[in-house]
C-alpha cells in the first residue's frame, strides 16, 4: 500500500512564526503536491514538484514556499505565518503518467493565532 | 477557467437507502474524472477513476457514471451504511503535465440510523 505521512496532525503557531510542514511518501513517486482545504472552497493547489529540486507554483502560492531535496520528502514552508493561513493542509503523491492516481496524506490542521 | 461543481452541498439519508451525488465540470481538455471519499479529519481516499472512454465504474456499493458529452458525472451509493458518512469530492484532471487536478467543493453525506 502507498503510504503518505505528514509530520503533524495538529499544529498551533503564532503570527509571524516560520512554519515547516513535512510530507514523506514511500512509493518512489516522482510527483508530489501540497494543497490547502477550506470549508466551501474545496482543495486548492499551493505547489507541486515533478522531481527532486524541481517545483512549480499552483493556484495559490503566495505566502508559501517549498523544498524537495530528496525524492521521498516534500516540505511546505510558511515564511511568516498569518491568521489567514489557518487551514487543513494536505500532501499528495503520484507516479508519472499514464497513472492518474494521487495518494493523499492524513492532513495537518494548522491554526495560526 | 476549469471548474468542477457538485450538488447537493449536503445530504442526509437514512441507513439502507440509496442516494446519488452530482458533478458538472468544464475542465478541458478532459483527461479523467475521479471520486474521492474524505472522512472527517482525514485525507481523501480514491473511490473510482474514469477516463474518456468509460461511462460507468463500480467499487462495491459505489457506482460512478460519466457522460463526457454533457460533462456530467454522478456517484450512486447503494444501501447506505453509517460508515458512508463523509464528504465526497469530484475531481477532474486536464491533459497536462504533473497530474494537476481541479477539485469540486464536495458533497457532505450524513447517514442516520
Order of helices and strands of chain B: EEEEEEEEEEE
What value does the Rg of chain B take, in angstroms?
Answer: 14 Å
Major protein interface: A-B, 25 and 23 residues
- Going by helix content, strand content and strand pairing, the class of chain B is mainly beta
Distance between the termini of chain B: 41 Å
**Number of alpha- plus pi-helical segments of chain A:** 0
Summarize the structure.
The complex is a heterodimer of chains A (113) and B (113). Chain A has 113 residues and is mainly beta. Chain A is built from no helices and eleven strands.
Characterize the structure shown.
- The complex is a heterodimer of chains A (113) and B (113).
- Chain A is an all-beta fold and 113 residues long.
- Chain A contains no helices and eleven strands.
- In chain A, strands 2, 4, 5, 6, 9, 10 and 11 form a seven-stranded mixed sheet that branches. Chain A has a four-stranded antiparallel sheet with strand order 1-3-8-7, with no helix packed on it.
- By secondary structure, chain B is mainly beta.
- At the A-B interface, strand 5, strand 9 and strand 10 of A face strand 4 and strand 5 of B.
Compile the SSE list and pairings.
The complex is a heterodimer of chains A (113) and B (113).
Chain A: E1 4-6, E2 10-13, E3 19-25, E4 31-38, E5 42-49, E6 56-57, E7 65-70, E8 73-78, E9 87-94, E10 103-104, E11 108-112
Parallel strand pairs in A: 2-11
Antiparallel strand pairs in A: 1-3, 3-8, 4-5, 4-9, 5-6, 7-8, 9-10, 9-11
Chain B: E1 4-7, E2 10-14, E3 19-25, E4 30-38, E5 45-51, E6 56-59, E7 62-67, E8 72-77, E9 86-94, E10 101-103, E11 107-112
Parallel strand pairs in B: 2-11
Antiparallel strand pairs in B: 1-3, 3-8, 4-5, 4-9, 6-7, 7-8, 9-10, 9-11
Amino acid at each position: 500500500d502507498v503510504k503518505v505521512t505528514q509530520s503533524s496532525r495538529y499544529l498551533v503557531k503564532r503570527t509571524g512564526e516560520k512554519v515547516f510542514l513535512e510530507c514523506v511518501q514511500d512509493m518512489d513517486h516522482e510527483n508530489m503536491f501540497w494543497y490547502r482545504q477550506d470549508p466551501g472552497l474545496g482543495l486548492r493547489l499551493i505547489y507541486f514538484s515533478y522531481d527532486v529540486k524541481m517545483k512549480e507554483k499552483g493556484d495559490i502560492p503566495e505566502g508559501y514556499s517549498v523544498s524537495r531535496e530528496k525524492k521521498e520528502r516534500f516540505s511546505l514552508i510558511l515564511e511568516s505565518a498569518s491568521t489567514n493561513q489557518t487551514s487543513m493542509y494536505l500532501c499528495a503523491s503520484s507516479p508519472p503518467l499514464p497513472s492518474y492516481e494521487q495518494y493523499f496524506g492524513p492532513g495537518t490542521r494548522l491554526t495560526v493565532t | 477557467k476549469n471548474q468542477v461543481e457538485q450538488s447537493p452541498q449536503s445530504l442526509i439519508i437514512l441507513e439502507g437507502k440509496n442516494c446519488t451525488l452530482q458533478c458538472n465540470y468544464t475542465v478541458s481538455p478532459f483527461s479523467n474524472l475521479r471520486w474521492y471519499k474524505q472522512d472527517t479529519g482525514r485525507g481523501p481516499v480514491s473511490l473510482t477513476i474514469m477516463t474518456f472512454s468509460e461511462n460507468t465504474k463500480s467499487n462495491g456499493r459505489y457506482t460512478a457514471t460519466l457522460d463526457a458529452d454533457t460533462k456530467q458525472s454522478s456517484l450512486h451509493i447503494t444501501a447506505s451504511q453509517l460508515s458512508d458518512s463523509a464528504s465526497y469530492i469530484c475531481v477532474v484532471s486536464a491533459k497536462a503535465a504533473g497530474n494537476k487536478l481541479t477539485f469540486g467543493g464536495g458533497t457532505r453525506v450524513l447517514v442516520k440510523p
